[in-house]
Amino acid sequence: MSARSTKRSDASWLPAPSALLACALAAALGGCVSASTHQRTVDEVVRLEQKVMDRDRSIAALEEERAKLLSEIEDLRDARQSLRADVADREKKIQGLRGTYDELVKDLEAEVAGAEARLELITEGLLFQLPQDALFAPGSAELTATGRKAVKDLAPQKNAEIKIEVQGHTDSTGSDELNQTLSEQRADTVRGYLVQQGLSADSITAKGFGKTSPVADNTTAAGRQKNRRVELVVSGEVIGVRIGN
Question: Dihedral of the CA atoms 58, 61, 67, 72 (nearest 10)?
Fold first, then answer.
């Protein structure tokens, strides 16, 4: 009897079926809640990691752009230094040409009363202006002795880098056709004489402008004298610009 009593006593400690079901449901619900929370945590971590990766890529792109800009700045500094050196070399060469041409200007002004020769730096290069009265007799396209000397003094500037454009101009006296023809003939004469002195024919061109480009008033004798002129436009690498560019 005591044995049966013991078995009943042990069975009395077991929970009722309803209590077991309740415990099972509670455990199941607790597991679902934990899984959902875990998934949200994982998603948040992934989102944050992606955000960090995007930021790192942005930083890397900015660093690359910065390096590129620094390289471009360095290239610009080098180019500036090179340009300064080129400008200094150009100025030195121009000064040398100026010295030669200035002497010629003085000689012409001393030999031809009232004649005004001049030299200036223009966009196309160096403009050297010779009064035609110092080069030609009235109405003639043949160089005078003074004219031959003046042109010959230019000839020593033999430089493969130099280009010369000879431009002939007249005053307004006479017909348009006559002035155009005379200006062309005088420009061709000066070009030919320069070639005779050893300059390359390929480096010299000649153009006549007639009376179309006056530099002074054609109603006065002094103005007409200034308009009767031959201009040499000297260009090339030594000057920094080439005719036709």
Answer: -120
This prediction has a pTM of: 0.53
- Beta carbons of 198 and 151 less than 8 angstroms apart: no
Is 188 buried (19+), middle (13-18) or exposed (0-12) by CB count in 10 A?
middle
> Domain spans of the chain?
91-236
CB 215, CB 160: distance < 8 Å = no
- 10 Å CB burial of residue 88 (0-12, 13-18, 19+) is exposed
CA-to-CA distance for 154 and 145, rounded, in angstroms? 15
Question: Which CATH homologous superfamily contains domain 91-236?
Answer: OmpA-like domain (3.30.1330.60)
Mean pLDDT of the chain: 77
- Residue ranges in 112-175 assigned as alpha helix (H): 145-154
- 131: part of which helix (H) or strand (E)? strand 125-131
Secondary structure letter of residue 158 according to DSSP: -
Residue 48 corresponds to which tokens in the numbers above? 């944050």
Distances (CA, A) of 98 to 89, 114, 149, 242: 14, 22, 18, 18
- Spatial contact of 123 and 202, defined as CB atoms under 8 Å apart: no
What are 117-140's pLDDT values in tens digits? 677 777 777 777 877 777 888 888
